[in-house]
Write a structure and sequence with these properties.
heterodimer, A: about 160 residues, B: about 1000 residues, Rossmann fold, 4 domains, seven-stranded mixed β-sheet, Formate dehydrogenase major subunit (chain B), Formate_DH_asu (chain B), repeat (chain B)
């Protein structure tokens, strides 16, 4: 018996039905093992669908490269450059603010405004009134605070 | 004693013990103190380019990496002006490198610029990034260089000049904007770059990157260049301080871990045994990343290990078992294939006896697979007809060592070769056949004054680099070795104390040398008497000599004897038992050592225990519950002969293209045609498989677990990086199925079970188990039961009864020469780019683009004599057959010697020319002894060597990166001086 060299391969023809069956089996197994997650997923999809969000997301994902290009192109225009830089600077600025102290300041401001809103516009304050007012402990506290503030603000 | 070498150094007020002259940065890195560092890499040593590791030493700001510690040194790393200098250096780096990490493919947690800036706590860039006026170099198929991202740290230059020692890369410090250049400033693809990829491995950022990573590693990196650019711009605008930028990019980096797997594996090409992490994304191989802790190679790789993995995903992979049916192979399910194999094996065994079957293991497969293959042959079938491809290459070296020193393996480690004062290589094209090991020798010679003597017919790179290069006549190495040994003894230069204490047979050996006079040697080898004397003088002038040899020694009719002569010389000069000395037969395949170690040999059980030894055989018979024949079986060569004679009727070949790689393949394939039943187990439908009755689809190393043993006797684990393709399966599982179908109950659930069984039966591997081999851990055999391994052999004596080595007397008779009819000698061997017959490497587009086919090297003088030019088509005819190929005219060969790389399975396959002559002691074919005549088919044509082959490049040797030239630039100010200036 002689075995000559051969190179031809007859591939196993797996009927499409069999492949389909196998795939369905795989999917069914996965569904059965993840029943709860799948049901929740369906619920999520239904909610998204009701609000038309599903269509929007679908379209966006399909055109993600275009969308990204548009957004990037737009955001890279010079007019946004200031906004973007400010955005991040603002973010850092917020971090530097001392919220506790600002809170205190804001409380003062609020009660000041409350009183101010009840005062009458027609009454005029003379120079002497001003000097007298310094003796009013409430006004004095405000002025002192403002002076401290001005000193701090001017400090190098 | 050691404590005397230690000194005290004060760092930030704390005292530390240091070794005298220890690198200061190394010392700081062992403490909790943080000093930024980018160009420094432990594997490379200090290159001193990045200036970030500024510290104050005894009142002066210096680079820590450029400073050696001295007793009483006072170091401060945290003074304000020290930090200012560090920051200045970092700012300079960030002028050269844009941080757009989130959309960078290198953002995988290991970017050293990213990490250093983050650790330093640098928040803002003081000066803007300045683009450089150079385009990205995308010319190479393997990696790309982006000058705009390059910080000029010079690690790539250091590794290319002093680790790989290919001397291709340099930094041109003279131009206005310096950059890395290849050769004399040519595109990467046209340079002398050998594609080892080490520059990419050591690059601290994304300046040098594997092309397989580009656009693949990140979630947001695979966009068109324009879009990517706008994303980079936006990233920079929207992420002003580095803190927020890193928060986003670090998150993206950890998301990548979700889909990129990093798996430790062992290279599947040569015997050096490089280990590395392979990065995969689904089935895509993103990159190969060697590690500092890789025992054999460190950060090194060669072109095949780094970039040669395309075969794993080749469309040509076999995915279902095949059975011959008329003129076609038909795909079948596994149970059908296994049933058929077992039925036919049984019929043939029942009809003609167990010895009518033969088994050939693979040097590509794992130790565990070698073990189960020989177990299948011995236990299940009942024959010792089991062998492996070490028969084609390394059996003679093993024989020579068994005769003299008792262990068939390298005496020490690659580190010992690096440490030797003198290295002799004989018949080894080291830089192409064992590239990473070759680089170790080149490095030691270039930087540490190691003497390199090279003996070879052909002036390959090692020959060109050698301190002395000798071209002995083919097959005469035994003569010059013996003559040099005799001269040493005649002069009384032998190592007398060593011989007295450790060596037997001195007198009878000395007498046997009588014939090997200098005159005799000069006449036979062509090496002059003067040179022979100088060789002897050089050999005895050094304290540590290592000799490396390969197929140029073993593939001759006197291969075993010549290997023995090498060992004799080492014994006479006392070059065993110590680090930096010894015998190094460089193993050719990833697991050619392990395949023999684990028993796939006709005369040995695992661990080289004789099958004729009743005690040993009894041990296996008890363990396996089977009777094993007491006589050695047939080796490869004898099996082919037995097929022709009709006494061997079935053959099972695992992972071996025997019909291409055995000698005299016309004769071998004629034998295949006569087989009653032929089983092939392989990844591809190889030339050999074309003759098979059944082909079983196996998997490559990346798709299975197991261990390989490299040339250093080092056992290393490989982990599964990918799932098998289609229905293919690991060899060990297929073999186990066959055994079990025969009615045995092998129940290995994992290769570690196989290793446990082998270790329990084999004293040489007593302490080997998978727990001791986790990740990058390795063991060099012999391994004691307690896990103690043996990096250096013979430390306590030689493995004979009296612990003494044996000198082995030798004869010599010239067995081969060219003659009037066949007037040319064909030398043959490897090229760097391809492996063996090329079944794996030709699947790589990049490698094939660099070297598309084999060629025939012809000397300029022969070309002129025969009137042929580059690209001529020639036909070579030997007594055994003929081969045709394209001529490449080069002075690497001289006179009437031709060189034909063995990496071809078409009409240029060298084994159409080789014949049935073998080494007399081991039956290894004498591949290197081919006499041919040459016929010219076409006088000239297109060169077989493409214009972008590295052999056409122009290397630019220098030591390191020449940082002095940077310091000499007018625009350079030392950051330490600059801050003083500013203050």
């Amino acid at each position: 018996m002689m075995s000559n060299p051969i190179t031809n391969i007859k591939r196993m023809e797996i009927p499409e039905e069999t492949i389909k069956e196998r795939n369905l089996d795989d999917v069914a197994r996965a569904v059965s093992e993840n029943k709860e997650a799948i049901l929740k997923g369906i619920e999520l999809l239904a909610t998204l669908n009701k609000s038309d969000t599903l269509d929007t997301v679908n379209a966006l994902v399909k055109h993600k490269e275009d969308a990204l290009e548009n957004v990037m192109g737009e955001l890279n225009k010079p007019q946004y450059s200031g906004t973007l830089e400010n955005l991040s600077k603002l973010f850092l600025f917020i971090g530097e603010l001392k919220v506790d102290e600002i809170q205190y300041f804001a409380d003062r401001l609020n009660s000041g405004m409350e009183v101010a809103s009840t005062s009458e516009d027609s009454v005029k304050t003379s120079y002497m009134d001003l000097l007298k007012a310094l003796k009013d402990p409430e006004i004095n506290r405000s002025i002192t605070m403002l002076l401290h503030f001005l000193r701090g603000m001017g400090r190098e | 004693m050691q404590n005397q070498d230690h000194i005290v150094v004060t760092i930030n007020g704390e005292e530390y013990l240091a070794e005298n002259n220890q690198n200061l940065l190394d010392l700081i890195n062992t403490t909790d103190e943080f000093v930024p560092q980018i160009c420094y890499n432990e594997s490379l040593g200090p290159v001193q380019t990045c200036d970030t590791c500024m510290v104050e030493v005894d009142g002066q700001i210096v680079r820590a990496c450029g400073t050696s510690v001295t007793p009483g040194m006072i170091v401060d790393t945290s003074f304000e002006h020290v930090n200012a200098a560090q920051k200045e250096a970092l700012d300079r780096i960030l002028e050269k490198h844009e941080l757009y990490c989130t959309v960078c493919d290198y953002n995988n947690g290991s970017c050293e610029i990213h990490n250093t800036v983050a650790d330093f706590g640098l928040e803002h860039q003081s000066r803007p990034f300045e683009p450089k006026p150079y385009e990205i170099d995308n010319s190479s198929p393997f990696y790309r260089y982006d000058p705009d991202q390059c910080i000029l740290c010079g690690r790539c230059v250091e590794v290319c000049q002093d680790i790989q020692v290919n001397e291709t890369l340099l930094i041109d410090w003279k131009r206005e904007k310096p950059r890395v250049v290849w050769d004399n400033d040519v595109p990467i693809d046209e340079s002398s770059c050998v594609g080892c990829g080490q520059c990419v491995t050591v690059c601290p950022c994304n300046a040098l990157m594997e092309t397989s990573m580009v656009g693949e590693a990140g979630y947001m990196t695979d966009h068109s260049p324009g879009l990517l650019r706008s994303m980079i711009e936006l990233t920079k605008k929207a992420e002003p301080g580095y803190g927020p930028l890193f928060a986003v990019s670090d998150t993206e980096a950890s998301m990548r871990e979700e889909r990129i797997e990093k798996t430790k594996t062992v290279c599947t090409y040569c015997g050096v045994g490089c280990t590395f992490d392979v990065w995969t994304k689904d089935r895509k191989i993103l990159k190969v990343e060697p590690q500092q802790d890789s025992p054999a190679n460190g950060i090194s790789t060669c072109i095949k290990g780094k970039f040669g993995w395309d075969y794993v995903n080749s469309e040509e992979r076999l995915t279902k078992p095949l059975i011959r049916d008329g003129e076609s192979f038909v795909e079948v399910e596994w149970d059908v294939a296994i049933d058929y194999v077992v039925k036919r094996f049984s019929e043939i065994k029942d009809g003609n006896g167990a010895d009518a079957l033969g088994f050939i293991s693979s040097s590509k497969a794992t130790n565990e697979e070698s073990y189960v293959m020989q177990k299948l042959a011995r236990q299940v079938i009942g024959t010792n007809n089991i062998d492996n491809c070490s028969r084609y290459c390394q059996a003679p070296a093993t024989k020579g060592l068994f005769r003299t020193v008792g262990h068939g393996g390298d005496s020490g480690s690659i580190d010992d070769i690096g440490e030797a004062e003198m290295v002799i290589t004989i018949g080894s094209n080291t830089t192409e056949s064992h590239p990473v090991l070759g680089s170790r020798i080149k490095r030691s010679q270039k930087l540490f004054g190691q003497k390199l003597y090279v003996f070879d017919l052909r002036k390959h790179e090692m020959g060109q680099r050698a301190d002395r290069f000798f071209q002995p006549k083919s097959g005469t190495d035994l003569v010059w070795l013996s003559a040099v040994t005799k001269y040493i003894i005649d002069q009384g230069w032998e190592n007398r104390p060593f011989i007295d204490k450790w060596v037997n047979n001195f007198e009878s050996y000395k007498q046997s040398l009588a014939k090997f006079t200098l005159d005799f040697a000069e006449e036979l080898t062509g090496i002059s008497k003067k040179d022979l004397i100088e060789i002897a003088e050089q050999v005895v002038s050094v304290d540590k000599l290592a000799i490396c040899w390969a197929m140029g020694v073993t593939q001759h009719q006197l291969g075993s004897d010549t290997s023995t002569a090498i060992s004799n010389l080492l014994l006479i000069t006392g070059n065993y038992m110590r680090n930096g000395t010894g015998a190094y037969p460089l193993r050719g395949h990833n697991n050619v050592q392990g395949c023999s170690d684990f028993g796939s040999m006709p005369n040995f059980f695992p661990g080289y225990e004789q099958v004729t030894d009743d005690d040993v055989r009894g041990r296996y018979e008890d363990a396996w519950g089977a009777e094993i024949p007491s006589e050695p079986g047939k080796d490869n060569h004898e099996m082919i002969k037995a097929i022709h004679e009709g006494s061997l009727n079935a053959l099972y070949v695992l992972g071996e293209d025997t019909g291409i790689v055995d000698a005299n393949i016309n004769y071998v394939t004629a034998a295949f045609e006569k087989l009653d039943f032929f089983v092939i187990q392989d990844l591809f439908l190889t030339k050999t498989a074309e003759y098979a009755d059944v082909i079983l689809p196996a998997v490559p190393s990346l798709e299975k677990e197991g261990t390989f043993t490299n040339t250093e006797r080092r056992i290393q684990r490989l982990y599964k990086a990918l799932d098998p393709v289609g229905d293919s399966r690991p060899d060990w599982q297929i073999i186990m199925d066959i055994a079990n179908k025969f009615g045995y109950d092998w129940d290995y659930s994992d290769p570690s079970d196989i290793m446990d069984e082998a270790a329990s039966l084999t004293p040489l591997f007593a302490g080997v188990n998978y727990d001791r081999l986790i990740d990058y851990n390795s063991l060099q055999w012999p391994v004691d039961a307690d896990g103690t391994d043996t990096p250096l052999l013979y430390v306590d004596g030689f493995p004979f009864d009296d612990y003494k080595a044996r000198l082995y007397p030798l004869e010599y008779e010239l067995k081969y020469d060219t003659n009037e009819e066949y007037d040319l000698h064909v030398n043959n061997g490897r090229v760097l780019e391809h492996f063996h017959e090329g079944n794996m490497t030709y699947k790589s587009k990049g490698i094939t683009n660099k070297m598309p086919n084999a060629f025939i090297e012809v000397s300029p003088e022969l070309a002129e004599e025969r009137g042929i030019k580059e690209g001529a088509e020639i036909k070579l005819t030997s007594e055994a057959g003929e081969a045709t190929g394209i001529a490449h005219i080069t002075d690497r060969v001289r006179g009437k010697e031709l060189y034909l790389p063995l990496n071809d399975n078409g009409k240029s396959a060298v084994n159409y020319l080789t014949d049935n002559n073998v080494d007399k002691d081991t039956n290894t074919p004498s591949y290197k002894e081919i006499a041919v005549r040459m016929d010219v088919i076409k006088k000239k044509g297109k060169s077989p060597l493409p214009p972008n082959n590295y052999r056409r490049g122009n290397p630019q040797p220098q030591v390191s990166v020449k940082v002095e030239q940077k310091w000499d630039r007018d625009d350079y100010i030392f950051p330490g001086s600059q801050v003083k200036h500013d203050v």
